[in-house]
Amino acid sequence: MAKYEIIGGNPLVGTVTISGAKNAAVAILPAAVLVAGRCRVENVPDISDVRILLNILRDLGAEISQPEEGVVEIDCTEVTCTNPNPELVKKMRASYYLMGSLLSRFGKAKVALPGGCNFASRPIDQHIKGFVALGADVEETEEYVKLSPGPDGLHGNRVSLDVVSVGATMNIIMAACLLPGTTVIENAAKEPHIVDLANFLNTMGANISGAGTDTVKIRGVEKLRGGSYTIIPDQIEAGTYIAAVAATGGNVLVQNVIPKHMECITSKLQEMGAKIYNYDDSIRIISEGRLRGTTVKTRPYPGFPTDMQAQICVCMALASGGSRLTESVYETRFFGYCSELTSMGADIMINGKTAVVNGHPKLHGATVRARDLRAGAALVIAGLAAEGTTFVENIGYVERGYERIIEKFTALGAQIKRIED
Ligand code: UD1
Known about the structure:
The chain is an alpha+beta fold. The chain has 2 domains: about 1-20 and about 235-420, UDP-n-acetylglucosamine1-carboxyvinyl-transferase, Chain (Alpha-beta prism), CATH 3.65.10.10; about 20-230, Enolpyruvate transferase domain (UDP-n-acetylglucosamine1-carboxyvinyl-transferase, Chain), CATH 3.65.10. The protein is about 30% helix and about 25% strand. The protein has 14 helices and 23 strands. The protein has helices spanning about 20-30, 50-60, 85-90, 95-105, 125-135, 165-175, 190-205, 235-250, 260-270, 310-315, 340-345, 375-385, 395-400, 405-410, and strands at about 5, 10-15, 40, 65, 70-75, 110, 135-140, 145-150, 160, 180-185, 205-210, 215-220, 225-230, 250-255, 275-280, 280-285, 295, 320-325, 345-350, 355-360, 365-370, 390-395, 415-420. The strands form 6 sheets. Strands 21-22-1-23 form a 4-stranded mixed β-sheet. A 4-stranded mixed β-sheet has the order 2-14-16-15. The chain has a 4-stranded mixed β-sheet with strand order 4-5-3-13, with helices on one face. A hairpin with a 3-residue loop joins β7 and β8 (about 145-150). α6 runs parallel beside α7 and α8 (about 235-250) packs parallel to α12. The protein is globular and about 65 Å long. The structure holds uridine-diphosphate-N-acetylglucosamine. Uridine-diphosphate-N-acetylglucosamine binds near residues 26, 126, 163, 165 and 168.
């Protein structure tokens, strides 16, 4: 795999434009399977997870074109296959959304268990619980999940999630869309990409209400038609650039964001001493690169996102005083990057769900290895803030979720380049 070479120590200055939200795109594209007609989706990020998904959908028989940058036109009218290519499905996490969309449209699906970032055990029992409540028979092996109609057929129902799960909420929304009757998801996740998926489906003719609250209601419709939709900006990509400026120091206008989605992240960085100015669809961050320690606990939205845990940890490692970072969604996530940060001079002690971080004014360059997407992004931030040269290896993970990351950081004055091994 290629690696990044980063010469750290430059403040970041300028403007960065945020791409479409990865976690919305990887749900909306499989949701196009529900639509008999052409969907034009705009603001689609050009990242490897999206490229894999498009290949899965093409392989299923979807007609796909990309008439301009960031636009995907997808027509699943002719799709008949309900068994997506397992080799492709295993390459990413969000391919599990094909379970919900194929089940709803065709009444059956056989989908391999997903791959993707394995920073923790990532069960899908809540997705399965939802499919069963909707009347599906489920055959689950170590390799695949096979769904078919149970004795009473597929129908809407009430599903109360035992844990707040983004993936299960979205998968059950998709599965319920074309079924007769009404489905109510209780204890649903409320992330912005859930609202985005519901807005996409409603634009195509679905009847979904309550997305963004903990109770989502889906009234089944017979058919979805084509239409146009624009994906929201990526909350986590924006948060990553904001955290990078906080850590390195600098003055950056982060464009194409929804400031409301960013509050859970920016309020913490403000507490740490960064200056944040919110505009209609942009945020300016100014930081002197010297932050104060703080306390963060990750939570489902609107709490502090687990997908920003590693990036804020870098800020904590450089802050004056101590910080406490508690993970409440994926307990083992610290193991993806803390030892790498320690090799760069960070002082982090992990105690169960909490990392105790003793801030130091400097990190130093080292050769480190990305073990998942957000861990990789955090190592890039650490490299940008550190003295000397950092090599971040295994960057395939980073490129799963960050569009043109080298170009964007370079435009802000960073010294970062991609080296092919
Ligand atoms: C999504 C995001 C991921 C983010 C995570 C939490 C995508 C493609 N990925 O992942 O970037 O880190 O939300 O915000 O959108 N759980 C169960 N059973 C289930 C499902 C989940 O026990 O069936 C647990 C998980 O182990 C975890 C928690 O619920 O502890 C939340 O997981 P979930 O929200 O489902 O994460 P993903 O949808 O996989």
